[in-house]
Every structure is written in C-alpha cells, then in structure tokens.
TrEMBL record:
Residues 440-484 are annotated as: Disordered. It comes from Streptomyces bingchenggensis (strain BCW-1). Residues 463-478 have a biased composition (Basic and acidic residues). One of its GO terms (cellular component) is membrane. This is histidine kinase.
Length: 484
C-alpha cells in the first residue's frame, strides 16, 4: 500500500505543475510586460530610434500589395476579401513598434483565417500552404519585434502557439501542406531565440550601467565621508589643545590669583570639570572616527611654516616650483590653527596633483593676505610645460583631492576657486578668513576639473634645474632658497 501511494502523489504533483505552467503561459500570451514605448527609444542616436519605424513602414509598403495580389491571382480569393486579409496580415507591423504582442495576435489570427479561406481552392496543392511567403516574412519580423520587448516566458508561449496552430492546420489539409508550417516553426524559434538573447544582453548592459552609476555615487559619498573623518581627526588635536589650556588655567587660577572668593573658586572648578568632560567626549568621538588600523598622531600638526619643505620636495621630484609668501603673512603673527592646518594641507594636495597629473609643468605657490588683513589667500598655479610633453603619472583623477580641499575650506568658512587657464595649465585659489564666522558657508566652485591644480592641465617634462631653485620675490614677498 505505501508503495502505491508514492506514484499517486507524484502523479498529482506532475498534474499540478503542468496546470501551473500552462496557466502561466496563457497569462503571458495576453499580458504585455513592457509599457507602450517604441523600440530602441533609449538609444542616444537619433537614427537608431527611427530605425524600427522605417523597417515597419517599408515592410508594410512592400508586403501589403504583394499579399493582396498573391491571394487574388494565385489563390482565387475575391479582391476585396484579399485586400482586407492583406491589410490585417501586414498592417500590425506598424503597431509592433510600440505594442508587439497585440500586433502579433492580430497578424497571426489574420494569417490563420487566410489559410482557412484558401483551403478549398482547386490549385492549392501547387501553392504554399498553410503559410504564404509574405506571411512568413511578416510574421518573422513580428516575432523579432516581440523578442526585443517581451520576456522569455511570453516568447516560449508564442512559439508553442505558432507551432500548435501549424500542426492543427496540417491535419485537415495534409495533402496540401508543403511544410511551411514546419518551416515557420523552426525559423520562428530561431528568431525568438536570437532576439531574446539580444534583449537580455541589452537589459544586462543597462543594469550594469545603472550599478556603475550607483557605485560611482556611493564611491563619491564614501570619499567625502572619509575626507571629513580625516579632517575631524586632525582638528581633534587643535581643539584638544585649547580644551587642555582651559582646563589647566581653570585648575591653576585659585593658586595664581590670590584672594579669590569661594564662589569664584567653585566656578573655576566647574569650568575645569566641564573642560575635562568635553575633552573625554571628544576622545570617544575620535575613537569612532578613526579606523581600526589607524594610529594616533604624535607629531604636531603642520602649518605654513612647513610649506617651504613641501616646495623643496616638489622641486626634487622634477617640478620647477617657486614659492612666494607675502611679508604681511609674517606680520599676522600666530594664525588660527584650523586655518594654518588647512592652508598647509591645500598646498600639499595641490603640489601632489601637479606631480601626478602634470609632471614638469612650472608651478608657482603664493600665500597672500587680503587688503584688510582679515583673510589668507593660497594660490597655486601650474602653467603649460616648457619642454617636450611627457605622459602623466595618472591620466584620470579620483577627485579625492578637490573633495578634501573643499571640505577644509568650507570648515573655516572660506571659498575655493579652481579651473583651467586659457593658455594651458591649472589654477587653484583658496581664500581662508582669519576672523571667526558665525556659520560656515560653502561657496566652492564645482568645476569638474580633476584632482587639483593639474586636473585638466597639460602634462609635460619641464626643464631640469642645474642650480638651486628659489622663490621669486614679488610685491614684498619673502624669498626662500630651495635645494634642487
């Protein structure tokens, strides 16, 4: 008994699966998957978008009179009936550009009616039956349009219906059939297979392009977050220093200033405790921002006093570089640490981009103050190469440099202007305010000009330096001797 129950269950499962697949195929035959948009509508080329209309129109103009004349002269149909059948068989080609599944239904039903209409013709054994040559050509193009739009399940259902109707028509007219039903079945399968493969390949390419676009956006977002985290880690030392000074001053105030009332001593103690608590919170935040393999910085944060070392290293890398620092900058005294650090990092990234993207291009670094001494301007300009152009170390930039510079400038409430020069080369100007701002504003230039001063500048090999390089003295700028 148990052995007999197993085949019964398997038999029922097979019937259920067959019923389910049959229902699915029948539903696919009457449900267009894609919206009524023209074929190749997404193509960027105008002639490709018009190609389906041109093919459908040309086929209709050719097949309509040929089919009507064939049905009238070779199959003995009435002229009016032949014209109506020819219009129903070939007219759907124009509809197939936007709605291929309904167009196939109309044409296929018309082909079947035409095959039945000529079934009793006396000379039918000498003619093609059940499908005439114009019907085969028009149907194959309809199947191609259908394969370029509909999914695989619909194509399988259409192929089976085409073959099934051909077999059914061959039963009553077996003595008339010349094998065109088999030919239609085979050629239709080939066309559906090739068209479906092309459609799936196009869909895969579109999905890949969408994923690449999403990946590029995510990469840009991740780069921005990484730059912000890096800036936050660097500024931690700056802020932590000020908080430490506040703590020490508040703790030592009762001992440095005699005769303080108890209320003042308690107030200084509260200030010191609040500063310690803020410093601890900042260290915890830094622990979140710092990656697992990152180590704490032990060296002091760099500033403008180390810019000459950057220029000297750039000269040793083969870039003819000059540095000019206005005397007014030294007269400003101690700069705000955030501005001092940002100015150094901007010059560092700009010179690194010159080395990567425009080797040998002469470069000038200028650090100036505004007329009212409320702002600091960092100007880095690389000109066109003066020697034989050579290949850059990198042909495409990641954009990390400009992202980092924009974030630093935005942090201190300044502006960043970048762009190529008319005569060749690249210019970068960062303006950093020296006074506190209530709210940072982002007025940076969003010009997609690569990674930095040499993003779109020419690449070439500049002249070699036989003697020591030095900074030119302009407008009272201080001169810095540099090693070759």
């Amino acid at each position: 008994m148990p052995s007999a129950a197993v085949p019964s269950a398997a038999h029922e499962s097979l019937l259920s699966a067959t019923r389910r697949h049959t229902t699915s195929l029948a539903r696919a035959l009457v449900t267009p998957t894609y919206p009524a948009t023209p074929l190749l509508a997404r193509s960027s080329r105008r002639w490709l978008r018009r190609l389906p209309y041109a093919v459908a129109g040309l086929l209709t103009i050719i097949l309509l009179p040929v089919t009507a004349q064939l049905l009238t002269n070779d199959y003995g149909l009435n002229g009016g009936l032949a014209t109506m059948l020819a219009a129903a068989q070939t007219g759907p080609l124009l509809l197939a550009v936007t709605r291929p599944l309904p167009a196939w239904w109309i044409a296929f039903i018309a082909d079947t009616v035409g095959a039945l209409a000529v079934l009793g013709y006396a000379d039918l054994p000498e003619r093609s039956w059940p499908w005439q040559p114009p019907n085969i050509i028009g149907c194959l193009f309809l199947l191609l349009f259908l394969a370029l739009r509909e999914p695989r399940r619909t194509l399988v259902a259409v192929w089976l219906v085409t073959g099934g109707v051909g077999v059914v028509l061959g039963i009553p007219g077996a003595r008339y059939s010349d094998g065109t039903n088999v030919l239609m079945f085979v050629l239709g399968g080939v066309v559906l297979l090739v068209g479906g493969a092309l459609r799936e390949r196009g869909d895969a390419q579109r999905r890949l392009a969408e994923q690449e676009t999403i990946s590029e956006a995510e990469r840009a977002r991740r780069t921005l977050l990484e730059e912000r985290a890096r800036i936050a880690r660097e500024l931690h030392d700056v802020v932590a220093h000020h908080m430490s000074v506040i703590t020490v001053q508040a703790d030592s105030a009762p001992y440095r200033i005699g005769g303080l009332p108890p209320e003042a001593e308690r107030e200084f103690g509260t200030i010191a405790a609040t500063a310690r608590e803020s410093l601890a919170e900042m260290r915890r935040l830094l622990g979140v921002l710092r990656s697992e393999d990152a180590r704490g910085e032990r060296a002091p944060q760099p500033g403008l006093d180390r810019v000459p070392q950057l220029v000297e290293a750039t000269v040793r890398a083969g870039i003819p570089t000059t540095l000019s620092i206005a005397k007014d900058v030294a007269a400003l005294g101690t700069l705000p640490q955030a501005v001092d650090l940002s100015a150094y990092r901007i010059v560092q990234e700009a010179l690194a981009n010159v080395v990567r993207h425009a080797p040998g291009a002469p470069t000038n670094v200028s650090i100036l103050t505004s007329a009212d001494r409320t702002g600091l301007t960092v100007l880095v300009v690389n000109g066109p190469p003066s020697g034989t152009p050579g290949p850059p170390l990198e042909t495409t930039g990641t954009g990390h440099g400009l992202i980092g510079m924009r974030e630093r400038v935005r942090l201190v409430g300044g502006t960043l202007d970048t762009g190529p020069l008319p005569e060749g080369g690249f210019r970068l100007a960062a303006r950093l305010p020296l006074v506190e701002v209530a709210e940072s504003t982002n007025n940076t230039d969003d010009s997609p000009a690569g990674d930095g001063p040499a993003g779109n500048g020419p690449a070439g090999n500049g002249p070699e330096h036989d003697g020591p390089a030095h900074a030119e003295s302009t407008d009272g700028a201080e001169r810095y001797p540099l090693a070759p």
